[in-house]
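Protocol step 4 of 5: obtain the predicted structure for the target chain.
Materials: sequence only (see below). No template structures provided, no constraints applied. The aim of this step is simply to have a reference model before the mutagenesis design in step 5. Sequence pasted as it appears in the construct record:
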Amino acid sequence: MDRREFIKMCGLLGISVPLTSCKSDSGSNSTPSNSSGSVLIIGAGAAGLAAGYLLNQNGISFQILEASSTYGGRMKRTTTFADFPIPLGAEWLHASENELTKVLKASSWENSIELQGYKSQDRVGYFENGTLNLSPIFDAFGSDFEDKKFINCTWFDFFEEYVAPSIQSQITFNTQVVSIDYTGDKVIVTDHNGSLYEADKVIVTVPLKILQNEVISFSPSLPYSKLNAIQKAPIWGGIKVFIRFAERFYPTYLTFPDSETSAGQRAYFDAAHGQDTSFNVLGLFAVGQQARQYQLVSQEAQLEYILNELNQVFDGKASQNYINHVVQNWDDEPYIHSAYLADIAPSSISSALSSTIDHKLYFAGDSYTQEEDWGAVHNATQSARRVVEEILKP
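Step 4 output (C-alpha cells):
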C-alpha cells in the first residue's frame, strides 16, 4: 500500500528490521575519515542519534545538543501501563528490511528482537451509520499489507540498546538551542542559558514545527526558498491514546468514514497484537483535523468522548470493561508540538527543507527527506545517512 494510505501512516514513525536478527556485531568500531572538523547535532531523536552514530563510525568529532532530559523524541514509550512496552510514538514497521543494517553498518545480527506481522484471520472493522462491518485484514488493506510490530520492545528500545550506548557520552541534555550563527568560518550555536558552542558544521534535526514557530533564529537568515517551505509546510498535530479493558471485544483495527481524508486520519487498533500478554489494550491513533476532537476537551471529557464513541460501536462494552488509559498528545509535548509533515504536503517542500546551506548547515529528520516520502523513522535515518555522506565528501 502507498504511504499516503492511512494504515501505513498509522506508524507515525516506524521502519522495518531484519526478521531473523537485531543485534550488530560491529559494535562502535569506527573507520577514520579523511574529513576534518567538528559537527554539532541539534536534537537527539531518530535522525540526531543516527547521525551521531554514523559520525562516530567514521571517526568524526561531534556533540549532540538535546532540549529535553532524554533522547528518542517521537519514539517515546512507556513501560508502566502494561506488561509490555507501549510505543507512544513510533509503532509499526513498514519500510525496507535493510534500513537498520544501513544505519548500524552491520552485516550480521543476533536474533534478539521478535517481530509480528498480521494474519489472514485478523479483522478490520468499519463503522458507519450505526453498522459495524468486519473484513479480513488483507481484503481491507490489500494483499501487500506487510506492517509488523515489535514484540515486547519498541523503536525506542532498539535505539537505546544498539545506537545510544556508543554515543550517549556525547549528548548534552536540557540544552535548548535558540540561535545558530553561520556567518563566519565556524558555526556558533547559542543555547537558552547563553552558553556558546562552536563547530565546523551543524546538523539541524529538530521537528519541523520548531522551525515553523521560529524557536531557533538563524544568522544570516535562512534562504527564501527554505523559509518559504518552512512557513508553508502543512504540519499535522497528533494524539495517541491507549485504553486497557477487562476483555477484548474489538477487532484488530476499527475504522470510520473519516479514517483517511486530506485533513487527517484516525483509527483504533489492537495495541496488544502479537504480544505475549493477558492485557487487553486498544490504541487510538489520530492526526490532523481528526485529532482535534480528542485534543480540544478536558481529560475527563476526553475519556468520556472516547468511551461513548466505542460504546456506540460495541453496545456499551467499552464502559463496562474500562480499567485505565494513557494519553500522549504530541501537540503538547515540549520541544516537539506536532506529529509530522502532513501527507498532503507537496514533495517540493520536503526537498526544499532538506537543502544544505553553505556546506555548513545541514538538515536531517523525518520531514527533511529530499523524496516523496516522509514522517517515519526510516525517513529520518535515511536523511541522517544522506547528510553524513555529504559531510564526509572531500
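Step 4 remarks: Confidence is low (pLDDT under 50) at residues 1-35. The domain at 6-392 is CATH 3.50.50.60 (FAD/NAD(P)-binding domain).
Proceed to step 5.
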